[in-house]
Amino acid sequence: MYMKDSVVLGESxxxxxxxxxxxxxxxxxxxxxxxxxxxxxxxxLYLECICDGLASNVEELEDVSRLTLSxxxxxxxxxxxxxxxxxxxxxxxxxxxxxxxxxxxxxQLGRAALVSSLPPDAALFVxxxxxxxxxxxxxxxxxxxxxxxxxxxxxxxxxxDWNHLHSIFSKxxxxxxxxxxxxxxxxRFLVSRLRNPSISTSDRNTQLHLRxxxxxxxxxxxxxxxxxxxxxxxxxxxxxxxxxxxxSATYAAMVVAFCSRLGWTYLCDLLKGFASRxxxxxxxxxxxxxxxxxxxxxxxxxxxxxxxTSMVELSNCQLKKICEVLSLAVPFSSSNTSDGLxxxxxxxxxxxxxxxxxxxxxxxxxxxxxHLRSLGLSVDQIKMPSSTDSATGAPSPEGDAPCxxxxxxxxxxxxxxxxxxxxKASSIANTDNNSTAVNKSxxxxxxxxxxxxxxxxxxxxxxxxxxxxxxxxxxELAISDRVQTAPALDSEGLSGAGEVDxxxxxxxxxxxxxxxxxxxxxxxxxxxxxxxPIVKRSPAILRSQKASCMKGxxxxxxxxxxxxxxxxxxxxxxxxxxxxxxxxxSPSTASPLLKNLRMERLLPPTAPNADxxxxxxxxxxxxxxxxxxxxxxxxxxxxALVKERSSASAAKVTGICLCPTDGWPHFIxxxxxxFPGNDEEEAVCPSSTxxxxxxxxxxxxxxxxxxxxxELFLIDALRDCHVLRRSFELENLRVKSVSYMAxxxxxxxxxxxxxxxxxxxxxxxxxxxxxxLRMNPRIACGAQAYLASRLVDxxxxxxxxxxxxxxxxxxxxxxxxxxxxxxxxxxxxxxxxSSLTQRLxxxxxxxxxxxxxxxxxxxxxxxxxxxxxxxFSRLKLACPGGSSTKKHLSTSKAILEQMxxxxxxxxxxxxxxxxxxxxxxxxxxxxxxxxxxxxxRSHCDMNTSTGRILCVEPSVQTxxxxxxxxxxxxxxxxxxQQGCVLISxxxxxxxxxxxxxxxEDPALLEVFKRGQDVFADMSxxxxxxxxxxxxxxxxxxxxxxxxxxxxxxxxxxxEANELIKNFFQSxxxxxxxxxxxxxxxxxxxFVTTVLGRRRVTCSTRGRQEDVARDDRxxxxxxxxxxxxxxxxxxxxxxxxRPKGSDTISDDHTR
Length: 1150
Hints:
alpha+beta, Arc Repressor Mutant, subunit A, globular, POLAc domain-containing protein, DNA-directed DNA polymerase activity, HTH_61
């Protein structure tokens, strides 16, 4: 436990298990150095306190935080700023005498997060997910709706086979692929995972695709496919699938509660049935029966097959019929015949069959009555069945005679559409004097025994009598609605528009009210925007002055400095285009939350400190002509793109923003689409409708001309240049990249560059970039262009301080060369690829049959576990590696190569893996990246710690050079363009030569001066083979330990230690260089390459393993980083004119 102040009085008593006693005593006696501060993000706690009325200002939240005895991850002011920015709470300035303070109150979104038990981050994700779905939702099947209630759970797909998932995706129906396109899943990403399966599951695209496959699996489950069948289809365990099923049921209930509290009635109706369906794995028509305690999916299915499809039919059914159905649903057991008892009801003790039937019918009747009461209907005159059935009104001795009196009337209840007999309806009378509010301000007047009374309805996500699967979570999700008295309605509009659930409710006699009673959900105060019955707001409120957060003696805080109101002088001076005003009380079938948001936009927004002036140059023809003339004087320009994903493989540019280094952004739309913002965004940066007289071809031509003549500053140059090439046919561009400059300036976490807003926060601005970058595409694009035009020059001194000016100059030249290489592309032989693919598939199939013939049965050659069982359990082959602590013995390539002589199946497995890898990791993925001109254009990543250049999407670097089939290798797929040749160039032992230069070891330098086979000379000197010498040298460079080196050269640990010792004895200055590098890393805190590029070392020297790893990385960085600089210098000079030849571009000389 963490406490802010030391406690010197009192005593503490700790109760522990006997097995934990020694560990507890060790912790107590270990001293203060083992004390751990408990740090938690308390944002959710703050939101709950505000919603529950426990706190209404910052001081009260700080008091609550102190009571938790833990250190908050962020202070209260930062957390409340975040909640306010994300519209979870409203912040209003209040004054009491001379004291000013901020009043915090929950918004509808904040309450929805509380009711659904969703943390703020998760609530924002659900909110955006559902909002996106409202724009386009596929209703031809339930898959899209099921996707919306499927949580992201990557643990379900731990170690999944991406090749198998790609196979499933390729076989989806047209409707299922339409859903995949709507949610963003595509086969191109699956192919990329085939090539690089090590991508982290935290990657957003990975999570999206795994969530889609989870929805596919659940789609089969709710359509009553067996768990075993679904588990086999998706190759996941049965238990894992059941866990996903239960988690999704709980998540579905949370999403439904979230929608209900927001007032999204129609979306709530679409999703509300999935919680119980996921819990039981049944179709929609069975959900009514499974809500009765004692009926599970299998019993409900039998009832449905026998014609009993609803609670009403079950409550009217004969006991004899119910007994017959239960006899069909429950398996016969000989052990139960002696006493006549059996488990007729799911999850309940053994009882007699007749008792179970009567109990089910009674529960069904009670459920129907409860539903009628929830509709405000009187059920006092409804005759419910007794313990015996009667055909004529007289009791039946056996209790199974048909009923003459119907139980209920369901004309309005929605429980049955087919078999409803004549029934008695409860009387409903109207009253004129008294009106009360029920279920979110809906009032239904009932006449019961001549008196008016009000029933309070309780809306719960799952029926109380359902199974207790969600017993804990459902308590939090239950929505208790209130009974309130009604004030007079305002003539201008409806009172509390945000509280209205459904327009259809107006067909009833209802009153829309706001009550005074303090019900459970109203233990906190609603903000005035939800309480006031007046829809229209006065101009004085809309134009209230900017709030000064703290006055008098109260100190100012970061929260207080935020702008919660906008003033007229903050608006842009330009003329705002005319707009049709949005009427809050206009008839609309949209979500009630959307109306509330429209009203909230009229309230003072959290605006940036200054307006960003974006010039819409296409607004008039004269403005366009002036822009065209002015842009001819530019030589440097920041560029940002508005991109729209038009297909799975390309992004379409719909707008571009150009910003000179000393001016404002100029926005040019490149489609007929217009980019207006909401009221808040228009107040910050007004937009103008583009003139139709300026054609798209004219715009594209002008933009292309500017980019050819200027040096371009882009946020991510290597990515954006591919888009520019496709849209404007531009290749040889002069570019600089903000993200790469930030990486070189150490503005990163690991190998991930900080976000643009994080980078911008390092400098002083008059803009709130975090707000601007989240606005509509036009404003966000303008903000990016403005930042790009400034940040390159602002980051330059930071980069130089982290390396040197010479290093920066080299990196920028290398960026230019790599970009030119990627845009030029590699010529690809499609015909050879297609032919080789077909031949490989046939060979792989033949190898599989050969293996099955040798072993006598089929098994999965892609499963290392099954291969291990075949080799070591069935064939009893000896494993060179000995026993293993893993679940099965290793079947790695190194192990199988040592076992080739033991059995012919081993050679077949090795060849199968080699061909399968060539097919799935190279051939099939590469075909997706071939452009229409027959070129493969890779993306390159230069954000690596050692300075290496990685080729991705596709990775042409990793194409193996070995022969695959009949003398053909995969590198034969790449050919020279017509009239060109391919030149191969490489450095011999580059990193080893760098080591010789840096260590200045005379023996190692002498080996290189001879100009012969370096490893052969060294092997003669060390007395070992050439191959072992090569592995030993690179093992020293990469910091390989004795154990790893021994496994590499197939020797024991002692022998590997002896090899390392002999190496350092033969080249003693290498040991001195390594030790000096370690010492410098500790003393200076960093190591550098030859040109001065730095790697900052770990500031704390903790565990021995961490110290050893940091030392290895420091040594590796100096050697590999210097080698990378040599390579970049050579690569950037490839485009120069070779002696005696014409000038050629570097994409022809790779």
